[in-house]
Design a protein that fits this description.
With about 220 residues, this protein is of the alpha+beta class. The chain contains 6 helices and 11 strands. The relative contact order is 0.17.
């Protein structure tokens, strides 16, 4: 499910620039936060979580990891640092080399030139698409409605309050510009189809109507 909106931008874009998505993996759910509105020039305009303004946080039984591809640290439940994982230089140029490899494979037209199979890209973007489908099927809701809907999930509720504070810092008030509350969508990874409630609407958003001759062929 998702809580999202396209705030502060006066354009024709359809993709949310602020997004909270909950992926109900068991036993370890995943919450993803996207923040792309920055009106304020303050140092904390994008907000922070566990002293991080980007990257990832992994909660464990005895503490948590906070960091990103360049390194990070382990902390106990009280926030005391236990161990550092400094950058060994392996992340330097990671994004550039990734994009360069893709462009090189497009130019050579050889799948073997790819550093990873295209199927990996398909799988790695599936969560992004699921979150966007939930958003596209959602409806605007007042903050108190969103809060009541998600109150049983403490982590998601905390993420929503952090998001409200970040938006306030950037001159967006959810009372006057409501966010979209997206419905739960359920995906069957074996069939690669949405199932259960609103499956028809969700599957309709899974593939666009192609414009000739730019058509992705169907594979039986």
């Amino acid at each position: 499910m998702s809580i999202a909106g396209r705030f502060a931008f006066n354009d024709c874009g359809e993709t949310a620039n602020t997004h909270i998505a909950l992926f109900d993996y068991q036993p370890t759910p995943l919450i993803c936060e996207v923040r792309n509105v920055r009106v304020s020039k303050g140092p904390d305009a994008m907000g922070k979580f566990r002293n991080q303004n980007h990257g990832l946080v992994i909660d464990c039984e005895g503490g948590y990891f906070a960091g990103d591809a360049s390194g990070g640290a382990l902390f106990d439940k009280q926030g005391k640092k236990i161990k550092d994982f400094p950058d060994d230089g392996g992340s330097k140029g990671l994004e550039t080399s990734h994009l360069s490899n893709f462009v090189a494979a497009v130019r050579s037209r050889k799948a073997g030139d790819l550093a990873a199979e295209a199927l990996r890209g398909h799988h790695s973007t599936a969560c992004c698409h699921m979150a966007n489908v939930s958003y596209r099927l959602g409806k605007q809701a007042r903050p108190e409605v969103i809060r009541e809907t998600i109150q049983a999930n403490r982590e998601l509720s905390d993420a929503f309050e952090r998001c409200r504070e970040y938006l306030r810092e950037n001159e967006v008030d959810l009372d006057t510009t409501p966010a979209v509350l997206g419905p739960w969508v359920t995906f069957d990874p074996k069939r690669e189809r949405f199932v259960n409630d609103i499956a028809d609407q969700a599957n309709a958003l899974s593939q666009r109507e192609y414009r000739q001759p730019f058509v992705v062929p169907k594979i039986a």
